[in-house]
Amino acid sequence: MNCRQYDNNALQKAINVITNNHHYHFLCSSHMALISSFSLAITMSLTLVFVFMEYDQDTVLVAFAQPKEDANNSSTNSQLSSSKLIGQGSPYYGNVSAPMVIADFSDFQCHQCKRHVDNTEQQINFTYLQTGKAIYVFKHLPIRGFDSKPASLAAQCTNDQGKFWEFHKILYKNQGPIDSGWASAENLRKFASQLQGLDISQFNSCFESKKYESFIDKDIALANSLGFTETPSFMIMNADGSNPQRIEGPKPFPFFQAAIEKLENGKKN
After folding, report:
1. Distance separating alpha carbons of residues 203 and 191, to the nearest angstrom
2. Helical H runs in 105-199?
3. pLDDT (tens digit per residue) in 109-144
4. Are residues 58 and 82 located together in one domain of the fold?
5. What is the pTM of this model?
6. What residues are paired with 28 via a beta bridge?
7. Which long-range contacts (CB under 8 A, 24 or more apart) does 21-24 make?
8. 172 and 226, same domain (yes or no)
9. How far is residue 84's CA from residue 77's CA, in Å, rounded to a whole number?
């Protein structure tokens, strides 16, 4: 499959085919910018999902459409409860008994995610986490490039040793252009070696065996079921997962304030 075979009209037709028939289709990664310009949530019930793959010696995107779940249904709520998220092994910080949960779906290669971490997350931490009102949970959504999933795998391995948030900080501090090599396997091991007290042999074994690949795939599936097509995206809900408030894409602090106030007001009524 040659990328030159796909012009803009062909790509639009492919998206229409996927949406109408739920069929798999192969799209060249060189069209990522064009894909980003289209509305990925084509209908209220379908979401397009794009995954990088190698196909016949070419770099391609596998695109498929899937039904979008209602973020307020009981099945989704149970997946978003703080006990469920923590019990599954998702990295978190804050009070485990907090009445609210903020789930952050992010990619370590995402520049908007770094902006969120450097700015809005600091305000969230000061206002809601340090005061015990909310717990902050990280969910992996490695969709930006080839090196995104290895970065997530490495980060989840550091969580085994209680070093996730330190590694999280190192990755965003050293973030470079997407797939430029800054998050290569060699560099990820180098970043891990900077963590004081980390058993590097244990980390290497975890990372090289891709121990958490299925775990991360489940995070991706959850994000897809919620209709998230960009990073960072967030779900803010009560500790039992009820009344989820959805924030897609990077947003300033007032958006989070409004969502949390809505939750708080709902409890008073």
Report:
1. 11
2. 111-118, 120-124, 148-159, 164-173, 185-193
3. 999 999 999 999 999 999 999 999 999 999 999 999
4. no
5. 0.74
6. 60
7. 22/46, 22/64, 22/65, 22/66, 23/64, 24/62, 24/63, 24/64
8. yes
9. 10
